[in-house]
Amino acid sequence: xxxxxxxxxxxxxxxxxxxxxxxxxxxxxxxxxxxxxxxxxxxxxxxxxxxxxxxxxxxxxxxxxxxxxxxxxxxxxxxxxxxxxxxxxxxxxxxxxxxxxxxxxxxxxxxxxxxxxxxxxxxxxxxxxxxxxx
Length: 134
Description:
The protein is α/β, with parallel strands linked by helices. It has one domain (4-133): Vaccinia Virus protein VP39 (Rossmann fold, 3-Layer(aba) Sandwich). It is 26% helix and 18% strand. The protein has 4 helices and 5 strands. It has a 5-stranded parallel β-sheet, sandwiched between helices. α1 (14-21) links the parallel β1 and β2 (25-31). The radius of gyration is 15 Å and the shape is globular.
């Protein structure tokens, strides 16, 4: 049986595509951007794609994505712009993008996957505002 993947902050589905090529089954995605969601759906036609701000999705709705097929792996690439060294205000706790990684953690708590994979910039782990992540 192929490992089941749920992709959060999925973009167009490139991260998921690598997992698909590695033999996993992509069962769902959450992405706020309309065009990226449509591209994801094209790249992964069997996946449930939710085009919505993850912060507005309830835990119940998240659980409904997979139905009886609970994901073994949750992957995600939260926005990095707020923590990037390219941003002169990097790490600003008032930048709402800097807290979106917590939504990925919330999804993992709801899904209880065997594995959680988060891709992001190294600065995410450096700021005092994110110390609880470690």
